[in-house]
Design a protein that fits this description.
8 helices; about 80% helix; about 0% strand
Length: about 180
């Protein structure tokens, strides 16, 4: 089925080259003009936060809350909230980075990846809401909906994915 569908799409692209190239140019323009500028600052800030120890500091301050609410260490919980404001690339990137540094467990990294289902506010409110839908309010509603779904997934996965008890990392330990 996928092969047949791919061939049909290729035939349409060949039959209507001007429409195809126009769509490609619009897509690239949207990406270069909206997506990259809205993601870049969050990626830079999250990388700095992860490497400077700011996530560890924030994790120590919020450890009790995240352990009680989400069964995540403070460090892992902080990544969930960075992901809310930076979008799924930031959440997954930070989870991968801190897992490779042994600051979060495998289970926490998996749960963060599962809950990183949202795009950042700059893209959702700015690009989708304001530019595509011509409604700032619609962008805010979509962003809040995505953020709530991300938090609900993070909350529910505490019962679905077991924790790594043998390698449990505590954000209260000294780094």
């Amino acid at each position: 089925f996928a092969l047949i569908l791919s061939v049909l799409f290729a035939c349409v692209l060949i039959k209507y080259p001007s429409l195809s190239s126009e769509g490609i140019l619009k897509g690239l323009g949207l990406s270069a003009g909206t997506m990259v500028p809205s993601l870049f600052p969050f990626i830079v800030v999250s990388t700095f936060a992860a490497n400077s120890g700011a996530v560890d500091f924030l994790g120590r301050k919020t450890d009790n809350f995240f352990r009680k609410t989400f069964k995540l260490s403070g460090t892992a919980g902080s990544i969930v909230f960075f992901g809310l404001f930076g979008g799924f690339p930031v959440g997954c990137s930070m989870a991968s980075n801190l897992y490779s540094q042994n600051k979060i467990t495998s289970s926490e990294a998996k749960r963060i990846a599962l809950s990183s289902v949202n795009a950042g506010p700059a893209f959702v409110i700015g690009a989708v809401g304001t530019m595509m839908l011509s409604s700032f309010r619609a962008g805010v509603i979509i962003f809040v909906s995505l953020s709530l779904s991300s938090l609900i997934i993070a909350f529910i996965t505490k019962w679905i994915l077991p924790s790594d008890t043998e390698t449990e990392k505590s954000s209260t330990s000294e780094v």
